[in-house]
Amino acid sequence: MKDKLIVIGASGHGKVVADIAIKMNKWKRIVFLDDDESVKACMGLQVIGKTGDAFAHKDKADFFVGIGNKAVRKKIQEKLMEEGLNVISLIHPNVVIGTDVDIGVGTAVMAGVVINSSTKIGKGCIVNTSSSIDHDNVIEDYAHISPGSRTAGNVRVGNGTWLGIGSVVSNNVKICSGCKIGAGAVVVNDITEPGTYIGVPVRRIYR
Ligand SMILES: CC(C)(COP(=O)(O)OP(=O)(O)OC[C@H]1O[C@@H](n2cnc3c(N)ncnc32)[C@H](O)[C@@H]1OP(=O)(O)O)[C@@H](O)C(=O)NCCC(=O)NCCS
Question: Which residues constitute the domain of residue 54?
């Protein structure tokens, strides 16, 4: 671990993850990189350059990609890892994490989250504010569990799938990769086709 953390992305999501880093109290200095040259600081933390500048800091900093957009987050995180930069995970001190839980690199776990025993969370995921993921779940890489979402036991959420705010997934349900689950939706059966799903219980509105 280095004494400097560089967060890539100085907008809304970047702010929240930088705030987690502040609360973790592990880094002496936290700064941002952002491709918008007009952004000079965020929450009082300096923006020191653009995304491409990350590689010049390779041996001097830890890195976190604070970008909400899944495709962009994945692209940047994969590039940083390929180049051997040290991508870390950020876990808010006010979370409850059970025994035998794995959390992948580049994943953010926000305030008020509960993750129960034997759950595996992949890399580059967002486990957002006050969501709860119960026992024996598998949350695949780059998935996003939005604020207040709930998954029961033995749920699987596919690569890059997004559970909207306040959605609920019942026990033993598998949701494939490439899905968007709408705000407040309830998933009670497996979803095997990518698409956008809304309602109680969910129905697909777009492929
Ligand atoms: C599901 C969702 C992705 C669809 O977004 P969209 O493609 O822009 O769809 P639209 O807003 O055009 O809505 C299409 C239709 O579905 C309805 N709809 C959209 N989201 C809905 C939801 N969550 N529950 C019920 N109905 C919904 C709309 O009312 C609209 O109905 P209509 O055709 O009868 O007017 C979006 O509405 C949603 O729920 N996003 C979640 C946001 C979120 O969780 N943010 C957290 C960020 S941390």
Answer: 4-88
Handedness of CA 120, 105, 109, 124 (dihedral sign): negative
Torsion angle of C-alpha atoms 80, 48, 110, 76, degrees rounded to 10: -20
Same domain for 63 and 132?
no
Evaluate whether residue 181 is within a structural domain: yes
Last residue of a domain, one of 66, 88, 110: 88
Which pLDDT band, with edges at 50, 70 and 90, does 206 fall under?
Answer: confident
Q: Is residue 92 flagged as an active site residue?
A: no
Cα–Cα distance, 87 to 89 (Å, whole number): 7
If asked whether residues 98 and 191 sit together in one domain, one would say yes
Dump pLDDT digits (tens) for 42-77: 999 999 999 999 999 999 999 999 999 999 999 999
Q: Where are the alpha helices (DSSP H) in the chain?
A: 12-24, 70-82
What's the structural domain count of the chain? 2
11 is annotated as contributing to ligand binding: yes
Residue 207 binned pLDDT confidence (cut-offs 50, 70, 90): confident
Residue 179 belongs to a domain = yes
Residue 204 lies in a domain: no
| Beta-strand pair 108-109/138-139 | unpaired
Is 12 annotated for ligand binding? yes
Q: How far is the CA of 202 from the centre of ligand 1 (A)?
A: 12
> In the numeric block, which tokens belong to residue 184?
């407040």
Distance 167 CA to ligand 1 centre (A): 12
Instruction: Let me know if residue 141 belongs to a domain.
Output: yes
